[in-house]
Amino acid sequence: MKDTLTPDTPVLHARGISKFFPGTIALDDVELRLMPGEVHALLGENGAGKSTLIKCLTGAYRRDAGTLLLDGREIDPVSTADSQRLGIGTVYQEVNLLPNLTVAENLFLGRQPTRAGFIMRRQMNAEARAVLAGYGLSLDPAEPLAAYSVAIQQVIAIARAVEMSGKVLILDEPTASLDHDEVQLLFDVVRQVKARGLAVVFITHFLDQVFAISDRATVLRNGRVVGECLLAEMTQRDVVTMMLGRHLEARTKARDTGAAGKTLVEIADLGKRGLIAPFSLNIREGEVVGLAGLLGSGRTETANLIFGAVQADQGRVMLRGQEIAIKTPRDAVAHRFALCPEDRKLDGIVGDLSVRDNIILALQARQGWMRPIPRAKVEEIAQTYVRALDIRLASLDMPIRLLSGGNQQKALLARWLATNPDLLILDEPTRGIDVGAHAEIVALIEQLRADGMALLVASSELEELVAYSTRVLVLRDRQQVRELVGDQITPDNIINAIAIEEVA
Amino acid sequence: MTSQTVGPRPSIMRRILPQLVILIVALALNVAVFPEFFQIDFRNGRLFGNLIDVLNRGAPVALLCIGMTLVIATKGIDLSVGAVMAIAGAVAASVVVEGHGWGMALLAALAAGGLCGLWNGFLVAVLRIQPIVATLVLMVAGRGIAQLVTEGKILTFDNAGLIHLGAGTVAGLPTPILIWLALGALVTCVVRKTALGMLIEAIGINERSSRLAGINSRVLLVCVYLVSGLCAALAGVIVAADIKGADANNAGLWLELDAILAVVIGGNSLLGGRFSIVASLIGALIIQSINSVILLSGLPPEFNLVIKALLILGILVIQSPRIGTYIYMLKASGPQPQPDAPPIRSTKEETAR
Predict the structure, then answer these.
(1) Dihedral sign computed on CA atoms, order B183, B184, B185, B186
(2) CA dist A403 to A22, A353, A409, B313, Å?
(3) Structure ipTM over 0.95, yes or no
(4) How far is B330 from chain A (nearest CA, A)?
(5) How far is CA B297 from CA A421, B24, B52, B285, B291, in A?
(6) Which pTM value belongs to this model?
(7) Is the Cβ pair B213, A365 closer than 8 Å?
(8) Is B130 on the interface with A (CB under 8 A)?
(9) What is the CATH class of A264-499?
């Protein structure tokens, strides 16, 4: 079996792939080699470029540079249908089959066996049964797809992709909504596909699964390949280090921990069943508490729970020693909490409203509609923050959706700073913004802390967390596993805490 | 941009310009088929004339589209307003028939309309039913309720005060005109002088973001449906007063569609967001002007609906995004000389290097 892993004959060889979006380089000279009969994990944090790369491979995006070699011949897929025909099949997290059609119809959609234009249903069902038996499934292909579980549907989607394409199978987070046994079922199928000599690309955030099924891995960070490696020679810790990256000259700046003031918020056993385990947390004035952890570890959930975006079902929150009830974001805003959400587009900006209106939105909402902020005052607030945060815009009247990502993020920061919050929660404040804006936001966080604000910052960027946090909480599997204080805060320690496989 | 602290909305004229142009065209069509269209006489203490008629007959749709504009701004729709008109008319008629005064009748009708609006708001904001389905319930059930109120008859009345609301005049102007003008001005003032307008637009554009910014979207949603119900109730009272009777089957029939159309002609997106009540009101006048053209042209009535449909189709095509970009491109490529564009680019490249 190992013989098939000879590194000289890749099924699919992507070389020098680059993809540019306005303002960002999504992929920069990326190489990906897929060998026949191997499972190849594609790893990286959100925004590293995994899905952009997949889309370039399958023709959903046109690449801006680079070549694709399939079996040594150059290909140039212009659409996903095109790449399917060439031999590259893809299965997504959300099963993209038609639940109201039968299993057989789903398997053969678009290439049903016909005679004189009529579908030969019996033959189709028989063929479907045979195909599925090859994957160890014995089920009635005449049943509608919706009658089966998501795992079975995934397998059927894989079967369809393999039957149609047959050279490369791309699995984009196929296990995200499966339980443990279903994952094993899926892995059995993947092993069979691998034994048939296909190259399988496996994308997931679950490192345990990566090590359970994959032979090799390519790790991406910020649109570049960090490395390609044989997983048998790696530990989880090595992989996490590669994914998150670190320049080891860890900033050992003098931390003025003494500056932290009185305790502002005390959170005791706050949690929600099925979402995040109860956690306790104190935040003092003039300190930045960092939340670290991989994607899905519970960073965003923690932030949302404190802000009332998700309602807690246990625990309590004390503000300056008095218990408060936060059931909705409205309650949180009334207590001078603020949350800059992770998903700027969906949860942050109000796209068609002007930048000016977006900046005063939270302040106006807290004042109530009866007391409009006078126009002159609105203008003053907006101008102040545009200047202070260096928001680049043509006019305050322009819809905020026209701003670049970094400027949108600054405008959202302005929205919350205008409410003069006591506790500012930032969820991925620097995601998807350019380097300049990045540095400015990091500087702003330090400035606000020095001014005595309490901040809670969730971020996947370790260096950033290390730079501004006075304390770091490490989350793993929706639980707090570690708290790092003072000199303990180094990228190394955070990675160790994230990657610890068994917590004692 | 320079400071724009002076004046409430500097772009209001630009916003309603397309609607004004269409209105002028529609009125010109009226003049074309009936040259004395703009002639206004003063007889028996009342202004008479076709223009006055357009303003007067347009009152129900104008009133409906005030509330409808707010509902549509929140990404909703209110299909029930026609049926609510029937309910309000029936309630007002039955109150005066029982011997109460017109003030009591008006209050009862408004209360009924308000209740209907609260019901719609409850379905949409609390139960989170899609607005088109939620308001369909009352659209269907409303006429039944109105029939129950009138006990299946056309309930006629002769209360002078109530009739005055639909057929009377104040200072020579028909009362309905004054009512819709006043209500339009009042609601515009309230939403624009307070922060209400912006908050309504915010929840229409992105409700999740708005909620996270601390906006009480649930209460606002209930409010816009409440306003829509109240507007429909006023329209219902005017229609009933005009014919001196409450006709549960025909009062306000299909007017919800005219109201939605008026809002759309007013340039407001059915996807919610930025809105202009003034533009919607002009839209209502455009629709009424078209009705007037057809009547004045003397064509057989069987042509009416087809001609109206064609004219409205024309308006919507002119306003469609495709045509909009086309016109924009024509304007952009037209008069501007552009010989020096290439040099600019090359210098930029040089500086980049």
Answers:
(1) positive
(2) 12, 12, 9, 35
(3) no
(4) 23
(5) 65, 17, 18, 18, 10
(6) 0.73
(7) yes
(8) no
(9) alpha beta
Q: Are A198 and A37 in contact (CB under 8 A)?
A: yes
Residue of chain B whose Cα is closest to the Cα of A304? B212
Q: What interhelical angle do A355-367 and A375-388 show, nearest 10?
A: 120
What is d(CA B213, CA A350) in angstroms, rounded to the nearest whole number? 10
Q: Hey, are the CB atoms on B202 and A350 less than 8 Å from each other?
A: yes
Contact call for residues B71 and B124 (beta carbons, < 8 A): no
A interface with B, Cβ–Cβ < 8 A, is 307, 309, 328-330, 332-334, 339, 341, 346-353, 357, 361-362, 364-373, 375-376, 379, 394-397, 415
Helix ranges (DSSP H) in A214-261: 236-244
Contact between chains at B273 and A415 (C-beta distance less than 8 A): no
Nearest-Cα distance to chain A for B212, in Å, is 5
Q: In chain B, whose CA is at the least distance from the CA of A349?
A: B209
For chain A, the domains span 11-100+144-243, 264-499
Minimal CA separation from A407 to chain B, in Å:
17
CA B177 to chain centre: 14
Q: Does B338 touch chain A (CB under 8 A)?
A: no
Q: How many CB pairs under 8 A join A and B?
A: 93
Among A193-202, A276-285, A425-434, name the one with the lowest average pLDDT.
A425-434
Query: Is the Cβ–Cβ distance between A464 and A442 less than 8 Å?
Result: yes
Binned average pLDDT, 10 residues per bin, chain B of 353 residues:
41 86 92 91 88 94 97 96 97 94 96 97 96 95 94 92 92 94 96 94 94 93 97 97 93 93 92 93 94 88 83 82 76 52 38 37
DSSP-based helix, strand, coil % in chain B, nearest 5: 75, 5, 25
**The pair of three-digit structure tokens given for residue A336, joined into one six-digit string:** 């001078």
Instruction: Return the residue of A nearest to B10 by Cα.
Output: A397
Chain A positions in Cβ-Cβ contact with residue B211 (cut-off 8 Å): 309, 328-330
A196, two tokens: 């048939």
Apex CA A278: angle with CA A274 and CA A283, to 5°? 135
Q: For tokens 């010989």, what's the residue?
A: B339
Helix extents (H) in A59-215? 80-86, 103-108, 121-133, 150-164, 180-195, 207-213
- Report domain A11-100+144-243's class: alpha beta
pLDDT of A76 above 60: yes
Nearest to B29 by CA among B263, B316, B286: B286
Chain B residues touching residue A346 (CB < 8 angstroms): 206, 208-209
User: Quick check: do A11-100+144-243 and A264-499 share a fold?
Assistant: yes
